[in-house]
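Input structure tokens:
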């Protein structure tokens, strides 16, 4: 039933010209005033012309004046209300899932402003819909990989193909942990984007904090025999931060650094005061991140050619860790970036030295 009405609406628009001579006026009140004045003036002019020039009686002049006024009013009013009809049509299409519709916003009055706002809203809805579709596809892909691997391992054990020895169970545990990390990332990202996270800022002593984070990363990097030197200048440097959130940030960066560092190497943690701000660097000697990809590493489910991009590729990353890192740093009023380095990758956190 909707399709025939839509087709007729398009045909109706093509038959009647969409005249917009009043678009330059900035108020709908002025436009209505001009519309009334134009129709009254035209009616008076036709009446005068019919009575004085053609000597027509009122029975002929009055209907002619009314008809001419209605035609002019219809043409001008149609141009004034055209954005409203377009918005109605676009809203109907959006209700059916088509977010590509836009409104011709050439008017300078309130209707034109509404049309511009409608187009902005349509852009946001289209981007949100695109992100939602990509999110569902990416989450499905990320969940399917460990689930498939775990299912295959368990099926082999049940069928007697594999033995439930420590090595097999360790592989199954690794897939389960990967699932747990993905679910945790999704929950954290959801809370961060919804603004459902509060910070408990304290004056955090960075020496002890970074050494504790390094000890945790040492367990992860034990197979590679990695070292984690910590350099803090000055030794008693503090920063106002939420310990739990900042630990999540540093642990995530260290996890990525461990993943891409060569064996028997080091991942360095550095903290210092630069220009009234506190800077924390996590430095590794891995493959690094290409310069043209650095602006995208903090996006959700980012995909890139560099293997250091949030742990993508064969390393089993989800592409969510650095997105959460960025959100957590933003909450602190700071910023995070991939700093220039001659070798490897330097992830740089910059935080306010005083409470925001």
């Amino acid at each position: 039933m909707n399709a025939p009405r839509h087709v007729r609406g398009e045909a109706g628009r093509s038959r009647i010209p969409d005249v917009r001579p009043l678009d330059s006026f900035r108020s709908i009140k002025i436009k209505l005033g001009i519309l009334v004045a134009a129709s009254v003036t035209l009616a008076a002019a036709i009446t005068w012309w019919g009575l004085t020039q053609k000597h027509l009686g009122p029975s002929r002049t009055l209907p002619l004046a009314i008809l001419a006024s209605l035609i002019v009013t219809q043409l001008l009013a149609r141009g004034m209300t055209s954005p409203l009809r377009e918005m109605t049509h676009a809203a109907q299409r959006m209700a059916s899932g088509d977010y590509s519709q836009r409104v011709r916003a050439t008017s300078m009055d309130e209707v034109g402003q509404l049309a511009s706002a409608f187009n902005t809203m349509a852009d946001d809805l289209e981007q949100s819909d695109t992100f939602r579709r990509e999110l569902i596809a990416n989450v499905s892909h990320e969940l399917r990989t460990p689930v498939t691997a775990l299912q295959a391992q368990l099926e082999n054990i049940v069928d007697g193909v594999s033995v439930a020895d420590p090595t097999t169970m360790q592989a199954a545990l690794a897939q389960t942990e990967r699932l747990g990390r993905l679910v945790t990332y999704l929950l954290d990202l959801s809370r961060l984007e919804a603004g459902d996270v509060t910070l408990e800022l304290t004056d955090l002593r960075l020496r002890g904090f970074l050494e504790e984070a390094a000890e945790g990363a040492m367990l992860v990097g034990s197979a590679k025999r990695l070292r984690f030197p910590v350099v803090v200048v000055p030794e008693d440097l503090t920063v106002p931060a939420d310990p739990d959130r900042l630990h999540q940030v540093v642990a995530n960066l260290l996890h990525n650094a461990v993943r891409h560092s060569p064996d028997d190497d080091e991942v360095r943690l550095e903290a210092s005061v630069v220009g009234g701000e506190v800077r924390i660097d996590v430095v590794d000697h891995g493959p690094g991140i290409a310069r043209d990809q650095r602006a995208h590493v903090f996006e959700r489910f980012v995909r890139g050619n560099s293997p250091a991009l949030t742990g993508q590729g064969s390393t089993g990353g989800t592409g969510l860790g650095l997105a959460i890192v960025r959100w957590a740093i933003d909450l602190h009023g700071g910023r995070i970036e991939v700093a220039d380095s001659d070798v490897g990758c330097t992830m740089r956190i910059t935080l306010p030295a005083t409470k925001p």
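The helical segments are 2-15, 28-53, 58-95, 110-158, 166-193, 206-220, 243-260, 321-331. The first helix runs from residue 2 to 15.
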